[in-house]
Amino acid sequence: MKRLLLRLREYTRRFWFIPTVMTVVSLLLAHQGISLEERWGVPDWLEFVYGGGEAGARSVLMAVAGSAIGVAGTVFSITIAALSFAAGTMGPRLLDNFTRDRGNQVTLGVFIATFAFSLYSLRVVRGVDEQPFVPHYNVTAALLLALASTAALVYFIFHVTSTINITHVINLLRDDLAVSLDRLTWKEPRTRHQPPPLAFWANAEEIQAPFGGYLQLVDVSAVVQWATEHQVSVRLLVRPGDYIFPNTVIACAVPTLPPDLLRFLAVGRYRTTDQDAEYAVRQLADVAVRALSPGVNDPVTAIDILDRFGDALCRLQGRTWPDGVHYGDDAQLRLVHPVTDFAGLTDGMFHMIRQYGKGSPAVMLRLLEVITAAAGCLHGAVELSELTRHADLAYHDALANTANPADRADLQERYRRFHVVVAR
After folding, report:
1. Average pLDDT estimate for 68-97
2. Which residues, including other chains, have CB under 8 Å from residue 227's CB and lie 6 or more apart?
3. What is the dihedral of CA 398, 401, 404, 406, to 10 degrees?
4. Can you tell me the mean pLDDT for 120-138?
5. With the C-alpha atoms ordered 119, 125, 129, 131, is the resulting torsion angle positive or negative?
6. Minimal CA–CA distance to 401: which of 358, 357, 337, 355?
7. Would you state the pLDDT for residue 89?
């Protein structure tokens, strides 16, 4: 079921979905308006309905249809060119955000629906040489759609200028990371289980991947139920976010491997953030690395992203990390699978920024400050150990690449504050 929902959501988020639905609805409404007028006509008391003749109706509908599709084509072409240029510094996530944005999809849908509605209505306008007919309802609706298109254009220009803003993009990525971490970790404490020794899987039957792609989702509850029904124990060797190579072993089971395990795994061409928190981290780190490149040289953006990483880490206070070990209703081991842990999360957050920003004292000072803030919120031994490792790496790399005595003194002071917080 989760696999089906994932595929359904992917299709509904595509750029063409909302415009297609709106276009189909507009055609149905146009047909309904024509049928209504052919059957009942236009009552005299509906004074707001268009009251002109065939020539005027034809001119209005042609003007609305031509302007709607012309403005849509021009505006979206210019916008995509501007976004392509901005994506050079912000990464491809900007273009992905543009195509998945509901506001942009609805705006395009309004223009195309207006064009389709007017064009469909135009086909039934007949003059005196034929059986005369003017779709008064539809001409009135086309005028209203033209006003809606004008409002949509104003909204679109404002919305796109906000979308190109780097802070807006960073905040969207921060929200994705927060949602991903909420799904990955548990708010309440839970009993942790140790996975069985490798000898437990010595005689396991293996399954190979029939094709390649990124593992996007594992329906854990369905796999546990399936394994319980077949009385087997399953071990997955890949986790969401891993690239699966064709013909490589991705799972095994004891005592036997029943068929249809692959139907609980979703594999696609792209990584998603549903069960892959490290991908959400990588997207933010990618923006920071681009900002630190010599061609861009924007340490402020990297500092903003470090602030979002600190926000994400502090949100983890009191949350429990999964162990990847699951038992069925019969209290028997049913599934073991690799999971993202705190070490992998912080490695994704800090490694690349430290490697590319070690020559920027401002970035490294902020990196140490963020790690210190996280250490003040997280008190587990594993978390503090990992934060200490990253603080040590950041301090020594920064010190080796900083010549100014005042900057070196600031680094030493931030490093000292971190150890004071850890020692509490």
Report:
1. 76
2. 233, 234, 253, 328, 334, 335
3. 10
4. 79
5. positive
6. 358
7. 67
The helix/strand/coil state of 252 is strand
Q: What are phi and psi of 252, to 5 degrees?
A: -150, 165
* Cα 107 to Cα 155: distance, rounded to the nearest angstrom: 8
In this structure, the dihedral spanned by the alpha carbons of residues 264, 267, 272 and 274, taken in order and rounded to 10 degrees, is 0
Spatial CA neighbour of 238 closest among 282, 283, 203, 206: 206
pLDDT digits (tens, 9 = 90+) for 185-240: 888 877 778 888 888 898 889 999 988 999 998 999 999 999 999 999 999 999 99
Question: Could you tell me the two tokens for 129?
Answer: 């040489």
Amino acid (one-letter) located at 41: G
Which residue in 364, 356, 423 sits closest to 392, CA to CA? 364
Give DSSP secondary structure letters for 179-247.
HHHHHHSBSS-----PPPPGGGGTT-EEEE-SS-EEEEEE-HHHHHHHHHHHT-EEEES--TTPEEPTT
What's residue 349's pLDDT?
95
Q: At what angle do helices 54-90 and 93-100 cross, to 10 degrees?
A: 150
Q: Alpha carbon of 112 to those of 37, 61, 98, 240: distances in Å?
A: 24, 14, 18, 38
**Confidence (pLDDT) at 334:** 92
Q: Cβ atoms within 10 A of the Cβ of 393, count? A: 16
Q: What angle (nearest 5°) sits at the alpha carbon of residue 251, between those of residues 246 and 257? A: 115
pTM of the model: 0.80
Q: Are 253 and 234 in contact (CB under 8 A)?
A: yes
- Residue carrying structure tokens 């993202």: 340
Other beta carbons within 10 angstroms of residue 161's beta carbon come to 12
* Cα 145 to Cα 165: distance, rounded to the nearest angstrom: 30
Specify the long-range contacts of residues 1-4, CB closer than 8 Å, at least 24 apart: 1/219, 1/222, 2/217, 2/219, 2/222, 2/266, 3/217, 3/219, 3/263, 3/264, 3/265, 3/266
Q: What is the mean pLDDT of residues 362-384?
A: 94
